[in-house]
Amino acid sequence: MSAERRTTPILTAAALTAFAANSILCRLALRDGSIDAASFSTIRIVAGAATLFLLLRLRHPRHASRWPGSWTGAAALALYAVPFSFAYLSLGAGTGALLLFGAVQVTMVLASIRRGVRPRPSQWAGLALAFGGLIYLFLPGITAPAPMGGALMFIAGAAWGAYSLRGHGAEDALAETAGNFARAVPVVGVAWLLAFGTVHAQSSGIIWAVLSGAVASGVGYAIWYAALRHLTSVTAAAVQLAVPLLAGLGGILLLDERLTFRLAVAAVLVLGGIGMTIAGRATTS
Questions:
Q1: Rounded to the nearest 5°, which phi and psi values hold at 102?
Q2: Cα dist. 46→157, 166, 190, 209 in Å?
Q3: What are phi and psi of 88, to 5 degrees?
């Protein structure tokens, strides 16, 4: 086993922790109105791009301007970041992360099937269990999440799934991520201009947005791109469903969010489906 493959579990765990941190930081910034969703998204992407540029400068001072990336990747990144922030205006950290990565799993598994990768029966059962948990979470009821917030987070999840799929071909994870972030800046800037009449930002909101962009997004996504080189699409989709558990725990401990019975049952179903999905390798027909 190569050194890169041996470090994949460590890189994956670090990336998943960063993903959970994004949900917590976004809720911290938005719950008290210290910043609006459009400004949070914009500052997050700008901070991520700046951090990645500095990292590239430190690694290759003469070649820091050569950022691969693509406008397609940037569009997917922006389509994830903006709905993500607006969705957290009405969703809790754990609920939002559960829906986000449920949508990620749907997107990545369907893309794998389209490419000819066929999950085994046990994986299909795991996927069905996970999807059943998401359906249960959004059944009508007093504790069901806000429909608009749920729809926005599903869009964000589909976009993040598409962004992750592009990461499988990244030869230089850091440069690829930097290029995508740089190109995403003007895209999210359009969203900020459209919401200009309602934008506002206090120092605390700006700090949370910068931390989300610089650390949890910029560095976290570069780590994720590095891990993706050694993960199948099905496995990458499944392991990300561990994020809602981390985000839910963080929401309870740091945001005083309440663990509802509905969320607990949905989390058990979704996370239980992870083990079944990654228990066996997908086979190619």
A1: -65, -45
A2: 21, 21, 13, 10
A3: -75, 0
The residues that bridge with 35 in the sheet, in sequence order, are 201
* pLDDT tens, position by position, 90-104: 998 888 888 888 888
- Checking DSSP bridges between strand 283-284 and strand 117-118, what pairing results, if any? antiparallel
Q: What is the 3-state secondary structure (H, E, C) of 52-118?
A: HHHHHHHHCCCCCCCCCCCHHHHHHHHHHHHHHHHHCCCCCHHHHHHHHHHHHHHHHHHHHHHCCEE
Q: What is the DSSP letter of 1?
A: -
Token pair 């976290």 in the structure block, residue: 220
Name every residue whose Cβ is closer than 8 Å to that of residue 91 and which is 6 or more positions away in sequence: 99, 145, 146, 149, 150, 153
Prediction pTM value? 0.83
Q: Which residues in the chain show pLDDT less than 50?
A: 284-285
